[in-house]
Design goal:
This protein is an alpha/beta fold and 231 residues long. It has 8 helices and 5 strands; from the N terminus they run E-H-E-H-E-H-H-E-H-H-E-H-H.
Length: 231
């Protein structure tokens, strides 16, 4: 029987790379994406294309209204930071942090994994080239995994032990890109920008664009996306 895995798929570099890693490791993949009240729909469209490109077994897209809670520049009437340098990006927790987002996403992934009968959940968190989010740290993942094995019927009954796979957590963005390219990832399908232009192009100035561009530069490759000034 083919082993199964739930993959949290946002349509970005990291989640697309972990999908490629899971496929390479022989998993039958179940992709999970969210319309969570983010300000644009591009990442969902990208996630759909990526899921089709990788031939996932099933792609589930759930709608939750984190914009009703707010508290983030991605879901609320808060400006997206632009033009920050890499030192600024790496210091403190930015306004693009969405309160409890990974906890919420992982909880849905856990529920789906329990239903389809697998203990394997993949998430593309990264604790090296990232924006300071507290729910991207190894200690958080360990705590969630412990909770998952305490809070589910199949784990309590000893039928399944849950594992949260984080293959990118200690890699730089450049290392992640190189790994993905080795596995044949087409990064032109991905999206990273927090505030894309009206035509869908990335802004090139938000923290996520800056980290993406830094990653491609350090990896020695040209980002296949087209930016306003062709950077």
């Amino acid at each position: 029987m083919e082993k199964k895995a739930v993959i949290l798929l946002s349509g970005g570099i990291d989640s697309t790379t972990i999908l490629a890693i899971a496929k390479n490791q022989g998993y039958e993949t179940y992709a999970l994406s969210f319309r969570y009240g983010q300000k644009h729909k591009i990442e969902i469209e990208k996630a759909k294309k990526i899921a089709r490109n990788f031939g996932v077994k099933k792609h589930l897209i759930l709608s939750i209204q984190l914009n009703k809670i707010g508290g983030s520049a991605l879901t609320d009437n808060i400006p997206i930071p632009k033009g920050r340098n890499l030192m600024e990006i790496g210091s403190g927790i930015p306004v693009s942090y969405v309160p409890a987002r990974n906890t919420i996403f992982l909880s849905y992934a856990l529920a789906w994994a329990e239903v389809i009968g697998t203990g394997d959940i993949f998430i593309g968190v990264n604790a090296v080239d990232f924006s300071g989010y507290p729910d991207c740290r190894p200690e958080y993942i360990m705590a969630f995994e412990k909770m998952a094995n305490l809070a589910t019927k199949v784990a309590v009954e000893g039928k399944i032990r849950f594992r949260i796979h984080t293959p990118l957590i200690h890699l730089t963005k450049a290392e992640i890109i190189k790994k993905g390219l080795e596995l044949g990832v087409d990064y032109s399908l991905t999206h990273s920008c927090y505030e894309p232009l009206s035509d869908g192009r990335p802004c090139g100035q938000c923290d996520s664009c800056k980290l993406r561009l830094k990653g491609f530069k350090e990896a020695g490759y040209v980002d296949p996306l087209v930016y306003p000034d062709n950077r």
